[in-house]
Amino acid sequence: MWGLIRQRMLVAALCGGLVAILPMTVLAAAAPALGSAANFAVLAASTVTNTGPTSIAGQLGLYPGTAVTGFPPGVSGVQHTADAIALQAKNDLAAAYLNAAGQTCTAPLTGDLGGRTLTAGVYCFSSSAQLTARLTLDGPNVYVFQIGSTLVTAPGASVFLTNGALPGQVFWQVGSSATIDTSTHFAGNIMALASITMNTGASLDGRALARTGAVTLQSNVIDLPTPPPPPVLPPPPPAPALPPPPVALPAPPGLPDPLPAGALPNPALPAPAPPAPAAPAASVETTPAPGAASSEPATGSVAADHSLVRGRQGLRTAVDSSSATCQGGDCAPSLCPALVPASLSAGCATASRLPALIGLAATGLPVLSLAVGLVLLIAGLLVSRRRRVLRRPSD
């Protein structure tokens, strides 16, 4: 039993330690929506009274009252007296007042605000609040002060904003009346259920909005606060980098560069070299005919060899001339009608087929040379035989 009690005591001690370590949750204040009342620096229900050179940087509104006095010498923006615009602003003010009064209090306060430094949040007074010295509001976001009855400042008191605190985001919800005494520099939106009085030389960086009573001014300066800046959005993510374009690789050594699809060869480039001609055929030895003299056949054989050489050179000259002419653009078939086949003459009309034709001609040269040599040899033998017949004496 004592063991069970010790375990429970240990658990209780651990829970208490965790509660002490964990921070308290603070509810953030929300800015009451002023609606069309945000356009007014001074807004009242019964009267607006001014004494001295008061300067109001913003509109002045009154509803349902109609008495606006002291302008001039006071100056202000556009004045709306007992019109639809002033009525709408009064309705929007009532909604903002109720919103501020209904927010959850995060820090109850009493007594004097002077000498304090506060961060954003909802601060509440069950009754009245005083400001006798300097109040510092430190940091951005919304400040809401809920005051049960009156708000009174001492002469020379001030509200100082620092580190991003803005007057447009400070709201004073006052349960009855607010009095800003001589030479006080006040900041924020004063939303009083009854009336607002600013004594001589007091200044306000904000709005003086009275729901049911009057606003009384005496040589004051009221500046309508600028709206808070829009939130800073994070920069968009950078666009993904595009892959680099493909790089054409050079052709391997010894190979021509590939041509793109549909591209034509460059005419300025030299034509491909024709294939090397075949080696000439070996000389043909001839045997003299039976019974013929030994001296005459030798003469005929030499003549036949000379004819064979001349025929071979003539054929090669004709083929070379035809090739040169075809490369120059004139492929006349008449250059070689008797020396080359008909298929070779017909193909001479196309310059692009000339290398193949030259190769064909070179391949047929040995056979053609042998035929011409035989013809010349036979012709020499016949001539030689006829000479012997003519020289023989007649019987």
Defining key terms:
2 domains; seven-stranded parallel beta sheet; 29% helix; 395 residues; 5 helices; eleven-stranded parallel beta sheet; 21 strands
Look at the structure and give the mean pLDDT.
Answer: 76
Shape: rod-shaped
What is the chain-wise order of helices and strands?
HEEEEEEHEEEEEEEEEEEEEEEHHH
* Regions with little confidence, pLDDT below 50 for 5+ residues: 11-26, 282-309, 321-352
What's the domain count?
A: 2
How would you describe the overall organization of this protein?
- By secondary structure, the chain is α/β, with parallel strands linked by helices.
- The protein folds into two domains: 35-223, no CATH class; 295-391, no CATH class.
- It is 29% helix and 22% strand.
- It contains five helices and 21 strands.
- The protein has helices at residues 2-21, 84-101, 295-328, 342-347, 354-391; strands at 40-44, 47-51, 55-57, 59-62, 67-69, 79-81, 107-109, 117-118, 121-125, 129-131, 134-138, 143-147, 151-153, 158-162, 170-174, 178-180, 185-192, 196-198, 203-210, 215-218, 221-223.
- The strands form three sheets. Strands 1, 3, 4, 6, 7, 9, 12, 15, 17, 19 and 21 form an eleven-stranded parallel β-sheet that branches. The chain has a seven-stranded parallel β-sheet with strand order 5-2-20-18-16-13-10, with no helix packed on it. A three-stranded parallel β-sheet has the order 8-11-14, with no helix packed on it.
- α3 (295-328) runs antiparallel to α5.
- The longest helix has 38 residues, at 354-391.
- The protein is rod-shaped.
- The termini are far apart.
